[in-house]
Amino acid sequence: MENCKPVDVPLIMGTKLSKELCPNTPEEKQGTNGISYSSALGCLVYAMLFTRPDLSHAIGILSRYQKNPGEKHRKQMKNVLRYVKGTLDYSLFFNGHNLQLQVHSKVSDLEEDPKTYKETISCARSKLWEEAMREELNSTRKNKVWKLVSLPNNRKPIGCKWIFKTKLNASGQVKKYKARLVAKRFTQREVAKFISIRIISALTAYYDIELHQIDVKIAFLNGHLEREIYMLQREGFGENMVCKLNRSIYGLKQASRQWYILFDNAITSYGFSMTEGDHCIYTKIIGGNFVLLSLYVDDILIVFNDKVTLTEVKAWLFSKFDMKDMGEASYVLGWKYIEVGTDDFLVYAKSHIFEVF
């Protein structure tokens, strides 16, 4: 590397690394000899930890393939070393003052979620996804979503499939591996409008009040069906029995509607009023106190000016539905809420940043 030409960026732009690029045969592995991948990675990690945090993104990607690196992985490793050679005068010194360091990475560099059940059981995170599927199936059993029956002669069952999603927190760290069994039907969702959520965010900042978040664990499974529906069993089970659905399941055309009707009937019976401009926004006024609630599929946002009233509303909601209290909202629908003072805060959106107030 002594005679190599320095470069301006650690990673070669436009090259996406993946496990598919790793060598599979002995011949392919023999052809990737040369630079010691693990040794180079170890040296870079040492530099990153002490004076070169600018290397962290590149090292985070390259470290995934240290067990079996391919030619393109090694090429990217060499590029990082070339970058280091051209930036030997770079270093980070701590002088005792409080510092805030914010690091960004491309979402496209993350390992993609599996698309099919077969991909799931063969990927590196298979045990984590198996646990997520087990949790989903336990929820369906607990709520008696279906029962196994023989398919009537005059009925045709619908199909089903798994959807896998890695949920991240506001810091970009993995919060949960989520697996969801869905019916192969198009779903129309009853949700709050984005403009309504932005207005709620603005009101929260303007009046200096809190915004709390609640996650409905199995929203669609709460709805009841109006007609008989039969569904094929998930992959890996016998075909002689089918699932007769007792409750709505994700993916059904009417699933979102049934959940919305159930929630609307419950929340209005508790004294909340639906707004005319957005049927997924509800308000309740008790004396001089108020509570504003928005519903977006399985996410609930609550704005309030009295904590006692909030506690009562949450207790009632938890008595009716299986929910998880997320506390003060920090990451909602891909938006990151950050306080920047006593009177305002910023909302980081998925693809841009806008100041709420």
UniProtKB/TrEMBL annotation:
Residues 143-338 form the Reverse transcriptase Ty1/copia-type domain. Pfam families: RVT_2. It comes from the Eukaryota. Transmembrane segments: none annotated. PANTHER family: GAG-POL-RELATED RETROTRANSPOSON (PTHR11439), RNA-DIRECTED DNA POLYMERASE (PTHR11439:SF496). This is Reverse transcriptase Ty1/copia-type domain-containing protein. It comes from Paspalum notatum var. saurae.
